[in-house]
Design brief:
single chain; alpha/beta; five-stranded mixed beta sheet; 37% helix
């Protein structure tokens, strides 16, 4: 095997970390590789809220183009950033074992006056108590419309501000701001050792479909790379993320629609939870289901149909009309 596999990656610390994980996995199976750095539209425009940019694949399109032009052989993505419909000529080659799917509140201790926050070890329950029982107008930052909608559904009196940039930039902005906190994906911070002590897991917040998973894609006709990547595909993660992305696809959801989903496998059973909210969090439809692992390929679509039967289309149409 003399071919050197060119791995396309964004330039952020997290993206490079993910690409290097794939490089190490390839090396374990005796495949040589090199990293090729490519900027994405999402990395260039750091001011516009993601949900206002109005495009699918804002973090993946530049890599897709490089792949189709044969400038790279595979591309490595945070799976939650990948459109459910891959570009023609590109296929999923592997999914790595999932890390944490949870969201974190990274809080700014200096912005709080509550004495209990400074006298005890902070927990999610403590913050829930502070937020639910205070009339103060707390300000939380996030670029995710999904996180915004779920937060406002739970704390309708709070202010949500936009926060863009890679994880390093966003952490710095939180530290330098008057915000009470910001919401991050746990996996992103933990993978590169940047999860601060001033953070708590939001167990009540349902994640984005495929959050915490890494996807590798290649050209559909590239049998060499498909074979190389098949060596480290994690079937359990691939099954769960497929169900979550089926749910998203069936609801025609994108970056402007607050859709969340989580599938987990225990023994031979797959468990699914999903929801759809209005942007302001005032409307929420939820669904749960379980099925034999043999029926895992249908559970995401079935749960989406459950929401559609219960009025999801009205919420989706309302979001589209407000754009």
């Amino acid at each position: 095997m003399h071919k050197v596999i060119r791995i396309g990656t964004r330039e952020s610390q997290l993206a490079v970390w993910q690409a290097k994980q794939v490089q190490q996995l390839l090396a374990l199976h005796h495949y040589a590789s090199e990293l090729v750095y490519i900027k994405s539209e999402g990395d260039i425009d750091l001011q516009t809220p993601l949900y206002q940019m109005g495009v699918q694949g804002i973090f993946t399109r530049s890599l897709d183009i490089a792949l189709l032009k044969n400038n790279i052989d595979i591309a490595v993505h945070s799976m939650k950033d990948v459109p459910t419909q891959l570009a023609a000529g590109i296929t999923q080659a592997a999914v790595l074992p999932r890390a944490s799917y949870k969201d974190l509140l990274v809080f700014n201790p200096q912005a709080f006056t509550a004495p209990e926050l400074h006298d005890t070890v902070p927990t999610a329950a403590l913050f829930d108590n502070i937020f639910a029982n205070s009339s103060a107008k707390f300000t939380i930052a996030t670029s995710s419309i999904r996180r915004k909608a779920q937060w406002l559904s739970r704390y309708p009196h709070h202010q949500l501000d936009n926060l863009r940039g890679n994880v390093n930039t966003r952490l710095r902005k939180v530290a330098e701001s008057n915000w009470h906190g910001a919401i991050f994906a746990a996996a992103g911070l933990e993978r590169i050792g940047l999860r601060p002590a001033s953070s708590v897991e939001l167990d009540w917040m349902l994640p984005a479909p495929a959050q915490g998973a890494i996807m590798v894609v290649c050209r559909t006709a590239d049998d060499f790379c498909l074979q190389a990547c098949s060596n480290f595909n994690d079937e359990a993660t691939a099954t769960c993320t497929r169900a979550e992305r089926d749910f998203l696809r069936s609801l025609l959801g994108g970056c402007t629609t607050p859709i969340s989903a989580l599938a987990t496998i225990q023994n031979d059973t797959i468990f699914f939870k999903g929801n759809l909210l209005s942007v302001d969090g005032t409307q929420c439809l939820q669904t749960t289901a379980e099925a034999s692992i043999n029926d895992a390929h249908t559970i995401g679509n079935r749960c989406a149909q459950t929401l559609l039967n219960n009025g999801a289309q009205k919420i989706i149409d309302g979001i589209s009309a407000a754009k």
